[in-house]
């Protein structure tokens, strides 16, 4: 469900909404664009797009940019949209349609796809994660040319140190605009003469106490080493139940589901995440560890597309933010999804920071909650669907 908001640009006025299933006022009232979107569109209107421009848009969180270009029917433009976020794709497609644009006229790509053809205009909303940006600059640079307009936009407070150097090192000369409403643009000119070959941006480690090789794609949670919350969960992992179907919700690199696969030889595991890289990475890690076992890998918002009453065990290390927005609304939605997807008698196990009120939330939802283990930082909780 989405709410409505007026977004006024030099290309016209639009109605934009974030993707949300939670219906909480705090989340519903969040704006679906920021001053960096406004600044970028203002700049584009001033320079005017080249005739029949082939535009590639990256990391457009709720689709403010793609909606504007698709709905304003920029003459002759072809637009490609690439993101690592399933939620962003959902929001953008809704917003394009709601504003009279034609979703079939946009090429929808995920973060692992290559773009199609050569690119005249590359518009980048700066992601929080510099490794993702680095991956994107290397991934698409072959499709740019010295005339490609390369423009990135971000809020100053989210611009990581090192962002300018990445553009300089990977693409070419880089300069910035003055800040306006705490947003800034970055302009870059392609210079192929200085190019270094793309390095391997994935990280790799062996999961402690196992022989599982873990590969982490650039936008995956805790990509340098095992998260300490995940480690605590693994020390107190559920065992000794009759289990045929397990879900790992918010799977990241898939470690929880991987360990579950080892502990339950009769079970199949379904891995869910909203990040395309996470799901692909979980699949790679699973297939390497268990070439003969079955599993499924699903990009989804929580488990919104799971069949009700279908799992005996669901494990989760919930996120405490959705993109740049911090809050427990995502975790709560996952808890509701988990309850719906569990069979009667099925168990939901999670790890969380002990200062977060997850125990109360799951008690309220399931009618029961148990502390399996706790230390100074974390708590492992379990609830049973009655
Ligand atoms: C704290 S990480 C846990 C990753 C992994 N399970 C682990 O323990 O290392 C939370 C994960 O939730 C995912 N996530 C965030 N919002 C989501 C949503 N709405 N639906 C599904 N997954 C989401 C993130 O992409 C991230 O991989």
What does this structure look like?
This protein folds into 2 domains: 6-194, Rossmann fold; 203-384, Rossmann fold (3-Layer(aba) Sandwich), CATH 3.40.50.150. The chain starts with 5 loop residues before the first strand and ends with a strand. The protein contains 11 helices and 20 strands. The radius of gyration is 22 Å and the shape is globular. The chain is of the alpha/beta class and 386 residues long. Helices cover 28% and strands 27% of the residues. Helix 3 (64-71) packs parallel to helix 4. S-adenosylmethionine (SAM) binds at residues 87, 221-222, 227, 230, 250-252, 255-256, 272-275, 278, 301-302, 317, 319, 322, 330. Residues 7-191 form the RlmG N-terminal domain. One of its GO terms (biological process) is methylation.
* Hetero compounds: S-adenosylmethionine
Instruction: Give the second-level CATH assignment, the architecture of the largest domain.
Output: 3-Layer(aba) Sandwich
How many E strands? 20
User: What characteristic shape results from the CA principal axes?
Assistant: globular
Query: What would the average pLDDT be, to the nearest integer?
Result: 94
- CATH class placement of the largest domain: Alpha Beta
By CATH, the superfamily of the largest domain comes out as Vaccinia Virus protein VP39
Multimeric organization: single chain
Gyration radius over CA: 22 Å
Structural class based on helices, strands and sheet pairing = alpha/beta
* Major sheet strand order: 5-4-3-6-7-9-8
CATH topology of the largest domain: Rossmann fold
Major β-sheet profile: 7 strands, mixed
Helix residue percentage: 25-40%
